[in-house]
Amino acid sequence: xxxxxxxxxxxxxxxxxxxxxxxxxxxxxxxxxxxxxxxxxxxxxxxxxxxxxxxxxxxxxxxxxxxxxxxxxxxxxxxxxxxxxxxxxxxxxxxxxxxxxxxxxxxxxxxxxxxxxxxxxxxxxxxxxxxxxxxxxxxxxxxxxxxxxxxxxxxxxxxxxxxxxxxxxxxxxxxxxxxxxxxxxxxxxxxxxxxxxxxxxxxxxxxxxxxxxxxxxxxxxxxxxxxxxxxxxxxxxxxxxxxxxxxxxxxxxxxxxxxxxxxxxxxxxxxxxxxxxxxxxxxxxxx
Length: 287
What we know:
mainly alpha, two-stranded antiparallel ribbon, DDE Tnp4 domain-containing protein, HARBI1_dom
């Protein structure tokens, strides 16, 4: 299918070769040149929105948006690569609005009174900032919240919930996230699980003293089976988190928009995971 620019070029060539009249050229050119009058909308002002609007559009209540902005260290002003400067809260809201639904940038023009290129740059800048500043929190065990005292506290809570192991402080799991089929290097993304193309896979973990798993085999004892059932029951909450990410940030569940080499799909998922965790800290988990 030809691009919009190619269609416009063909119209101009057709006019220059006297295949269409000047009136026909202008008419067809205007039909393929959508006018999106962003300048006719009101400038974005968070104070003019109510709590319900903010919760639906940005996944946070209005009074709470400032807190994750502070915790995530969003600056008062964000500067894009073309030197466009935008208010930090507005920039965060643009990112949240874009990822809360399966929408295009043109769909949120009316909300922020900005052209599509600006919305794209601002959203990308916010994503890059959050990732560069906080991605280590999901990719390293060297964290203050994983101190010896904290690990013991986690283990006590999990054991009190019904886990047979008294020293289990957490659970490991992974998920397969489908993406749009790329034109090249499909084999790199293919993992054979239900035949989707994916970015994240669930590896086969090897057991050791620090990593335990269920008893395997068809001839396990009743006690071992009871152990597996109890541990499976308490670890199910980890799987719920994967659902929370795509429920609150539905853009990540629309694989046609998740195009490798055109979008930073892995970075998007990590940032949405961090924001989902921020929601859980504010509102607790409902799953």
